[in-house]
Amino acid sequence: MDPIDQLDLQKLPRHIAIIMDGNGRWARKRLLNRIHGHREGAKSVRAIVTTCRKLNIPYLTLYAFSKENWRRPAQEVNALWDLLLEYIDSQLPEMLEKGIKLNTIGDKEGLPPRVIDALDVAKEKTRNNNDMVVNLAVNYGGRQEIISAIKKIIHSVLENEIDTEDITMDLFSAYLFTKGQPDPDLLIRTSGEFRISNFLLWQLAYTEIYVTPILWPDFREKELIDALRDYQRRERRFGRTSDQLHSHSNNDPAS
Ligand code: FPP
To answer: Which of 14, 214, 217, 248 could form a disulfide with 26 if both were Cys (CB 3.0 to 4.6 A apart)?
Structure first.
């Protein structure tokens, strides 16, 4: 039986966010250089994008490079950029063929020009794809995103484009990188750490969190399906009681 058949296709998350952790540990366990771990991790990225597309999951957000990752040795940082460029280069045809739009979240400023260029080209080429959005979080930090939204909102108020009274949760969301996208329903973190690590701090307010000890390079289709099965066993209450949920069909946190 195809493991996908174990899933309830009507109850899949619309948006999955992933903290891809454990590449270094995967390599160390094999006495390999950390960069081998990242290379193997890039293969997991390919596998997970392909499976999510197959399952018709419309949004996938991957934490590829955090603001804090600049603290790593320059050689490792450069290897991560090389892998990102290699990934874009090799996956662009599949993205075009399968209707996948590439989007980035995070600050362009500070990225090497070759990375900015490659990301811009891929975003432009996939701009009209509407079947799935892959958000790559690159030079991303959740607190930084919130501060930048606040600055933009203050600017809009000072320019009389909005009134202070107009500032609602929906308006705030529209000033984030994920503008127009649903918040993640499911956050997956590999390699066993129970931390958010400055990822999507605003957007994860009601997200179900799944932590697995599996290291990212070992996280492929089967492991994603296990995470989805776990998610499907959860009851998302959004502050309501269980009884209320069973007599109420609306699952939306905002209502
Ligand atoms: C964490 O492993 C992973 C990262 C810092 C970045 C994720 C990068 C990739 C999956 C490779 C390329 C990305 C794309 C989008 C193709 P770690 O090094 O923190 O692992 P450790 O905690 O075991 O040391």
So the answer is: 217
Place of tokens 């009851």: 235
Query: Confidence band (pLDDT; 50, 70, 90) for 1?
Result: confident
Supply the pLDDT for residue 247.
81
Q: Which residues contact 234 (CB under 8 A, 6 or more apart)?
A: 208
DSSP state of 140: E
Quote the pTM value.
0.94
Nearest residue to 216 via CA among 73, 24, 13, 16? 24
Residues with Cβ within 8 Å of residue 245, at least 6 apart in sequence: 235, 237, 251
The answer, yes or no, to whether any atom of ligand 1 lies below 6 A from the CB of 16, is no
For the chain, list the domains and their CATH numbers. Answer: 11-143+184-234 (3.40.1180.10)
Q: Please, which residues have CB within 8 angstroms of residue 194's CB and are 6 or more apart in sequence?
A: 211
Paired with 211 in beta bridges are 189
Alpha carbon of 248 to ligand 1 centroid (Å): 41
